[in-house]
Structure formats: structure tokens, C-alpha cells
């Protein structure tokens, strides 16, 4: 659980310097993680990006200062990193629902976003079966959806995307690109993750040997670089089993093992069978850094 202790140290450091600019590399260094892994872990554990958390905390502190002192709005705006009163007022209204100048009004309602603290706990009530494998670079082909983790949008949009692709025959066309005897699997791939905005590309795809054929049929083709993968066996109906699997990997497995995310694509691998059955088996592939 040392990883969670390091994360807590990074949050403490952020709180002590809330008036300054957010420095992801500095925070990641305190957490003893790469910037990508720090932001990915933070988001999976808290449900928000580092930048979103800092913004809410800054605006909480700014509201308290405006309500309890005679400080000018422009001075408070600059103190908490806003370039102009206008940008500060826009952000302030989004959180508190009022203009900064109204914060001093007696009886006015303000939002208070508390600082986060990680509670260290031992779970371990369910085993997590995984293996570690090295894979050379390969190509995937399929269709893409750009989505975001903000407000759980991805949890709604991705199942809808799968439903549409099954209904219009896209999944069947993707399956037609595979060697069904040797590679009968369909992939759900998370690519191009932007940790600042929580946006990423989700791709329904398969592994292909002939990129030309896939391009000719109108599919997007991506190269997945060589990597070492932690591969987790998931048992249960979709999409809940996969979503729970990702949550456990980041909240339990990473802190328990000390591995670090390598920053590349993440895969959901769907094996033949009834995806809604209780015994349905799928896999999650996470690229990891392995010390030499």
C-alpha cells in the first residue's frame, strides 16, 4: 500500500501550494510515479482529474476568502491562478452558481469541496487472476468513439456504441477481418488518453495482419507498440464485469503490487461465448513497466 501513501504525500503537497500553478511532473515525482500513471491512478481512485480536483479546491478556498475578508475579487482571482476577473468569474459561477462579488452577501449559499484523503484498507476478498506477457508490436483495425470519463459519460456511451455496432453489422464486419481459427477475439481498446481533460478514444477492433484490406473497407488502423502486459482474467456478464475489473485493478492491484502503468493503450479482450452470462470470460490488458 506504499503507492497510496505516496499519493497522499502528493495531495498534501498540492494543498500546501494551492495558490500556485499546478505542476503535474512535480506532483508525480513526489508520488514516485510517472506523470501518466499518477494522473491515471488519481482519476481511477477519485473519479476526477488532478486538474479538476485542484480547480474545485481553489474555488472553495477563494469563496471562503471572499466571504470572510475584504479582499478584492481581482486579487483573489490572481492569487488562485486566474489570468483575469472574467475567467475567474466564469469558473466561480460554474461551481457556486453566483458571481464572486455575491459571495459576501449574508446568507448566500456556497459550495465547499473538501480535500481528498485516501483511506488505507485491506480488501482481498476476491482473488485477481493475472499473468504478465511481452508482446511485439501489432496492428488493430476497427471503428472509434471519442468520449470522456467526466460524469461517467464513458460508462453510458461505450455500451451504447457497442449496441449500435452490433445492430448495424459493424462488429460482424470487423470479425470478418480476423483469422477466426487463430484469432477469434474482438477488442475494446482505450487509446489517446488525455489525462487533463479525461477524454480518450474507444475503439472496437481486432488484430489484423493485412492493414491494406482493413483500410480498403473503411476501417481505422492503429499500431500498438511492443509492450509488457499485465493480463487479467475477468468472469461475469458485460459490461459490469469489465467495469468492476478496471476499478479493482487500479484500486487494489496496482497499490498491492507496485507495478506502474506504461502509458500505452488498454485492452478489453472478448472471447467467444455469451457476453451476458454469469460465467462469461474476458480479459483486460494493461501495459506495465517492468524493472530490469
Beta strands, count:
9
Query: Element order, helices and strands?
Result: HHHHHHEEHHEEHEEHEEE
Note the overall shape.
elongated
Question: Helical stretch count?
Answer: 10
Percent of residues in β-strands: 15-25%
Question: How far is the N terminus from the C terminus?
Answer: 22 Å
Largest sheet: 9 strands, antiparallel
Question: Percent helix among the residues?
Answer: 40-55%
Mean pLDDT: 90
Supply the CATH superfamily name of the largest domain. Answer: Regulatory factor, effector binding domain
General description of the model:
There is one protein chain. This protein is an alpha+beta fold and 292 residues long. It has two domains: 2-104, Arc Repressor Mutant, subunit A; 130-289, Alpha-Beta Barrel (Multidrug-efflux Transporter 1 Regulator Bmrr, Chain A), CATH 3.20.80. 40% of the residues lie in helices and 23% in strands. Strands 1, 2, 3, 4, 5, 6, 7, 8 and 9 form a nine-stranded antiparallel sheet that branches. Strand 3 and strand 4 (199-208) form a beta hairpin. The longest helix is centred in the first third of the chain and has 19 residues, at 50-68. The chain is elongated and about 75 Å long.
Summarize the structure in short.
This protein has 292 residues and is an alpha+beta fold.
List keywords for this structure.
292 residues, alpha+beta, elongated, Arc Repressor Mutant, subunit A
Annotate the secondary structure layout.
Elements: H1 2-16, H2 24-30, H3 35-46, H4 50-68, H5 73-79, H6 85-96, E1 130-135, E2 138-148, H7 153-167, H8 170-175, E3 186-194, E4 199-208, H9 211-216, E5 220-224, E6 227-235, H10 240-257, E7 260-261, E8 266-270, E9 281-289
Antiparallel strand pairs: 1-6, 2-4, 2-5, 3-4, 3-8, 6-9, 7-9, 8-9
Helix pairs in contact: 1-2, 2-3
Amino acid at each position: 500500500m506504499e503507492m497510496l501513501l505516496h499519493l497522499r504525500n502528493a495531495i498534501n503537497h498540492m494543498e500546501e501550494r494551492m495558490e500556485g500553478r499546478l505542476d503535474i511532473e512535480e506532483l508525480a515525482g513526489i508520488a514516485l510515479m510517472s506523470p501518466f500513471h499518477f494522473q491515471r491512478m488519481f482519476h481511477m481512485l477519485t473519479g476526477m482529474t488532478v486538474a479538476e480536483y485542484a480547480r474545485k479546491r481553489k474555488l472553495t478556498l477563494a469563496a471562503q476568502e471572499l466571504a470572510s475578508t475584504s479582499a478584492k475579487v481581482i486579487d483573489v482571482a490572481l492569487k488562485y491562478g486566474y489570468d483575469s476577473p472574467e475567467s475567474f468569474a466564469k469558473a466561480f459561477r460554474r461551481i457556486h452558481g453566483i458571481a464572486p462579488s455575491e459571495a459576501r452577501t449574508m446568507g448566500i449559499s456556497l459550495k465547499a469541496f473538501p480535500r481528498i484523503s485516501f483511506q488505507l484498507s485491506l480488501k482481498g476478498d476476491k482473488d485477481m487472476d493475472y499473468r504478465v506477457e511481452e508482446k511485439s508490436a501489432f496492428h488493430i483495425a476497427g471503428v472509434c468513439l471519442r468520449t470522456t470519463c467526466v460524469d461517467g459519460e464513458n460508462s453510458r456511451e461505450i455500451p451504447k456504441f457497442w449496441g449500435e455496432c452490433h445492430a448495424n453489422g459493424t462488429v460482424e464486419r470487423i470479425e470478418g477481418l480476423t483469422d477466426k481459427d487463430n484469432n477469434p477475439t474482438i477488442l475494446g481498446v482505450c487509446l489517446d488518453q488525455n489525462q487533463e481533460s479525461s477524454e480518450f478514444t474507444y475503439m472496437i477492433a481486432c488484430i489484423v495482419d493485412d492493414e491494406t484490406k482493413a483500410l480498403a473497407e473503411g476501417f481505422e488502423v492503429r499500431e500498438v507498440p511492443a509492450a509488457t502486459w499485465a493480463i487479467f482474467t475477468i468472469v461475469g456478464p458485460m459490461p459490469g464485469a469489465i467495469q468492476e475489473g478496471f476499478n479493482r485493478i487500479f484500486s487494489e492491484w496496482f497499490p498491492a503490487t507496485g507495478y506502474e502503468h506504461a502509458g500505452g493503450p488498454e485492452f478489453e479482450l472478448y472471447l467467444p461465448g455469451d457476453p451476458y452470462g454469469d460465467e462469461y470470460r474476458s480479459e483486460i490488458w494493461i501495459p506495465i513497466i517492468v524493472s530490469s
